[in-house]
Amino acid sequence: MEQNTTASGGGSSSNNSTTGSDFASSEARARSSALASSSSSSSSNKSDSSAGNETKNNKATTVTTTTETPRDTNHHQSKKTLPARTLLGLTVSGVCAGVFVETLFYPLDTIKTRLQAARGGGGGGGGGNANLFKGVFNGLSKNIAGCVPATALFFLAYEPTKRYLERTLPPEQNYAAMFAAGATGCLASSIVRVPTEVIKTRAQTGNKVQSLGGILRASGITGLFVGYGSFLIRDLPFDAIEFSLYEEAKISYAKWRGRTPSEVSRAEATILGATAGGITGFVTTPLDVIKTRLMTDTCTISPLKGVVDCGTRIVREEGAKALFRGASPRVLWISLGGGAFFGVLESARKIFVPENW
């Protein structure tokens, strides 16, 4: 009995021990499973959080890209054209500068023209050197009357062309943009500048046929455009070289001083403009001599037949040095005039042109 009881008691104790061990093991496994689940959940949450952050960052990047790209593109395109108000201000500034220079330095232009028009080294106006300084303001009012629309046409063509090409061509070709813009402005203004130049040079040299009506009666409408080819040969390179030289010099100077071109002062612009004008004036003097001879030629027996014929006759009859006749007053006039022109131009722009144009 005892044995059975003992045996029975031993079996019961063993079963209890086994049950307790299994429970503890099960509980441990449960805790381990819970920890693993918690760890997995935490890792999953971190992964989800990281993925969410990446998604947000990608979205932010996407948003930034989609908002900035069109804005930059539109901004670049809008800068290719000039607003009407800005273009008007630039044109008015150019007219003010042109009228100022034409009036102030007109006597030097008259002396230069008389020296160029004289055959065989004489003075001008048909009376030798005695007439060189007489009536140096002859034709000024007629010149101003033509200067206003001619200068306006120049800047109406020059500024938009320069603006467009500067933003179309690569930066290293900036000089080409300004050169092309200067030539375009010259072509546009030549419609008015040539007739004005014909009337002005004839008034300066005392030519009998110098009024608008007189020229029309004597030669018709073609009389107002005599020497048009020589004018373009002279002024196309002149305007292109002078303006591109000035603009490039201003950009280089401003960069050297650590400033922007718009911060160049009037005095600095005057010096830069005078330098550009003087260099250009000397280089183009032979073309100016030919232009003057053609515009003042009223000979009916053996008239000049064009640029080549005029240049050939000058060299054959007067020597090659005659092509540089009037070079000193021309360089002086254009140097002073160029300095004054660009100085007044920059000052006028501060008045008539909106800021940050």
UniProtKB/TrEMBL annotation:
It holds the Pfam family Mito_carr. Belongs to the mitochondrial carrier (TC 2.A.29) family. Keywords: Membrane, Repeat, Transmembrane, Transmembrane helix, Transport. It comes from Bathycoccus prasinos. It is found in: Membrane. The chain crosses the membrane at residues 87-108. Solcar repeats lie at residues 85-164, 173-252, 264-351. InterPro entries: MCP_dom_sf, MCP_transmembrane. Its main location: membrane. One of its GO terms (cellular component) is membrane. Residues 1-80 are annotated as: Disordered. It is a multi-pass membrane protein. This is Mitochondrial carrier protein. Signal peptide: none annotated. Residues 1-68 have a biased composition (Low complexity).
